[in-house]
Design brief:
three-stranded mixed β-sheet, 468 residues, mainly alpha, elongated
Length: 468
């Protein structure tokens, strides 16, 4: 189990959302952190939950799940009991006003004086002071650096900005190694350089708002770490439905992982992906299946088959071949595709040729079943027998038909026994088969008999049993 309830919360027997979470934490937390908290809370009733399960549900990475829970641990509402294996415990939520530690007023007098001068009309409650002091000491941020962060956030959001937002910005900067006034001032000045580009991105997403620190951090990531050009980011933003910075970040990260960094490469990737989606939908429809999401099938099967060099119509033809031969699942089709590939057949013409051979073989197998008195549908076992007799043992169809006539009413296994004995004798024609007849020392030719355990043991020497 990855997430669980604390004993106090488990006694309640209900997965309700604390109102304090909504009023004191949710408004100031990053969107991904809120989603992870809620999804994890929902999964606490499932003993098999994991970071991967939460990541899959939210379309993010497992590392982002752990980072989000680290954020909530810092907020004091979860505990990360273990990292290997990961184990998170949800705690009872207390108002932030109750979590006030004692800090030296003399130590932070200069900090307080500058804070009041920066926001002269604001009334500071003890909880806000406490959170600033705690961040300074736990993040090892210089007081002057914290003041620089506060001033920057006030400039972006106004005098009424909540301190949780300020603290989130400070934590993110600290995670990047910005702990001194010089480093933070340098980073924030860098952010200001990108205002024009970020405004264009927000407009392309269909939003009307001012850029915030999260937007700017993402922009630095996209351009500096991932290597996207500003115009490419805008182009991608225009194509995102219900656009948000988080969705844009996920899209750009996916393109980066696929090696698509330019507008042309992204267009090629999307074209190829659309092809995969259309092709995969056609394949599963021919197989008689339905899947709500095709991503896993594309990554596991379709893309591999295309990498083999198969054309789209060849894969659809193989799906039809599988359906007609009652191999109507993706694993069976994968085996058939691999078999075609090993034969060097990757085009629809080659597949159709083999399908025609299979149809012709089924006609011959139908004749054999009729000769043997078998009034039933052709099975996979019948086809395997036929392939062995004609391709491996090199018997002609007339010879096999004659064997079937000798085995009338006794089944394909009996035919196999006759042909096996003829192969050992070097029989190759009907005339030679007639001379050989159906009699053989091969036990597979004789009709099976059922014996009791006592009858079987009666034929075994007592001394042999004792020596077993």
């Amino acid at each position: 189990m990855f997430v669980k309830l604390s004993p106090a919360k488990a006694q309640n027997q209900k997965l309700t959302l604390d109102s304090l979470f909504v009023t004191d934490y949710l408004p100031y937390a990053p969107e991904t952190c809120v989603k992870v908290y809620l999804m994890g809370l929902n999964l606490t009733v499932n003993p098999d939950n994991s970071p991967e399960m939460i990541a899959a549900a939210l379309n993010i990475k497992p590392d982002e799940v752990l980072s989000a829970f680290k954020y909530w641990e810092d907020q004091g509402i979860v505990s990360m009991l273990s990292l290997s294996p990961p184990l998170v415990e949800y705690k009872e939520i207390e108002s932030v006003r109750k979590r006030i530690l004692t800090y030296s007023k003399a130590k932070y007098k200069a900090f307080n004086d500058q804070l009041h001068a920066m926001l002269p009309g604001r009334v500071f409650l003890p909880a806000e002071y406490n959170e600033y002091y705690a961040a300074i000491e736990t993040l090892h941020v210089e007081p002057e650096a914290m003041l620089a962060v506060i001033a920057y956030c006030v400039r972006l959001k106004g005098d009424t900005i909540g301190y949780p937002y300020i603290l989130t910005v400070a934590r993110n900067l600290a995670a990047e190694g910005c702990l001194t006034f010089e480093r933070i001032n340098e980073r924030l000045s860098e952010f200001d350089l990108y205002d024009g580009e970020i405004k264009a991105i927000i407009k392309a997403l269909g939003q009307r708002r001012k850029p915030d620190v999260y937007d700017k951090r993402c922009y630095v990531k996209w351009t500096k770490s991932l290597g996207f050009a500003a115009e490419t980011i805008v182009q991608v933003a225009k194509g995102i439905k219900k656009g948000s910075i988080e969705r844009l970040d996920a899209a750009l990260t996916r393109y980066y992982e696929k090696g698509a960094l330019t507008a042309y490469e992204i267009e090629q990737y999307e074209t190829a992906r659309e092809r995969c989606v259309t092709l995969t939908a056609a394949i599963v429809r021919v197989l008689g299946k339905y899947y709500e999401r095709l991503d896993y099938i594309i990554e596991t099967y379709t893309q591999k088959w295309l990498d083999y060099g198969f054309s789209d119509d060849a894969l659809v033809a193989i799906a039809d071949y599988c359906f007609r031969n009652n191999r109507r699942d993706l694993e069976s089709m994968d085996a058939e595709v691999t078999a075609f590939y090993q034969k060097g057949v990757t085009t629809v013409g080659g597949v159709d040729e083999i399908k025609a051979e299979a149809v012709a073989a089924d006609i011959d197998i139908r004749k054999l079943l009729d000769a043997a008195g078998e009034q039933r549908s052709i099975s996979a076992w019948d086809r395997d027998y036929y392939r062995t007799w004609t391709y491996s043992w090199k018997f002609s169809l007339p010879v096999v038909e004659y064997a079937a006539s000798l085995a009338r009413g006794k089944g394909m296994a009996y035919i196999n026994g006759i042909l096996n004995s003829w192969q050992a004798k070097g029989v190759s024609t009907v005339e030679e088969a007639k001379k050989a007849g159906a009699k053989s020392d091969s036990p597979s030719v004789s009709a099976p008999t059922t014996k009791t355990a006592e009858e079987l043991l009666a034929g075994v020497n007592t001394l042999d049993i004792e020596n077993l």
